[in-house]
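User: Show me a protein chain along with its predicted structure.
Assistant: Here is one chain, sequence first, then structure tokens.
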Amino acid sequence: MAEMTRNCPDCGHDLPFEQVHAGPGDCPDAPDGVCPEWLCSSCGAALLIGLIELSFEPAAYDSARARVA
């Protein structure tokens, strides 16, 4: 597992955080496979670190010209 030190919001101290899906391409929740979730090794609090890519599809709508006011 990968590890780094961050301030834990639950513990209130700088503690090591571990990444559950440490290998590249191992995370099933991220499109690129890089897991943004890090867990405090002391209490288990989770931090999302990094960018999460979201894709939005535009909603289908009727043309405004087809409607009469």
